[in-house]
Amino acid sequence: NNAIEATIVQDKLTLNGIHSFLEDENVLGLNPSGGVQLRVFSEDQYKAQQILAEEQ
Question: What is the reported pTM?
């Protein structure tokens, strides 16, 4: 489930001091597939990418 995966990634970022938020978690609106987007502030983008790259 994308929402569960996004929450796991969000928790990992939080543990590393990066504030993030989920967008469109339960709102379908005009997008029939729904979906979740994990957002971070631009000043945290590079650090977030480094943290997530370590997982791969």
Answer: 0.76
